Amino acid sequence: MTRMGIIFAAILALVTVSLVHLSASLPAKAVGSPMTVGLETTAKPLSKGEAQKIEAYMRQVFGNPGIRIVSMPPDAEVYLGEHFLGVVFPTDDKEGRTFYFEMSIFDSEIEGARPVKRNR
Predict the structure, then answer these.
(1) Using an 8 Å Cβ cutoff, are 97 and 108 in contact?
(2) Strands, DSSP E only, in the chain?
(3) Among 36, 98, 100, 101, which lies 20 to 30 A Cα-Cα from 61?
(4) Is there a domain that residue 66 lies in?
């Protein structure tokens, strides 16, 4: 092995060990948790008023009055009827407050789903 190959292998091993050590010290995240890459959000929790406004917005955008938001501070869960759709979570930054909607679709959920015919 050349000198550069040995140096590259050593750096790769160091990075791998560092990543493994870092990931072992991070808290476990539940499915549906915001993608914070191990960093806790510093945003203030979603208020009841914000959840109501987001619910109205999502109903309008998706054209479905069956969408409902259930506050689960610091976030909120989104449902269509009784079907869980995803999570809305807030972030605060220099531009202001932003709300992210995160939806996971498992392959087991789409098994047997039929395409919807579109009228063009």
Answers:
(1) no
(2) 67-72, 75-80, 83-93, 96-102
(3) 36
(4) yes
Asked whether residue 21 is assigned to any structural domain, the reply reads no
Closest CA to 88 of 37, 120, 43: 43
Q: Is residue 84 part of a domain?
A: yes
Bridge partners (DSSP) of residue 31 are none
Q: Mean pLDDT over residues 11-39, rounded?
A: 57
Residue 58 within any structural domain of the chain? yes
Number of domains making up the chain: 1
pLDDT in tens, 88-105: 999 998 889 999 999 988
**Structural domain boundaries enclosing 94:** 42-105
Q: Measure the CA–CA gap between 8 and 80, rounded to whole angstroms.
A: 51
**Do you find a cis peptide bond into 34, omega within 30 degrees of 0?**
no
Q: What is the pLDDT of residue 5?
A: 63
User: Is the Cβ–Cβ distance between 83 and 93 less than 8 Å?
Assistant: no
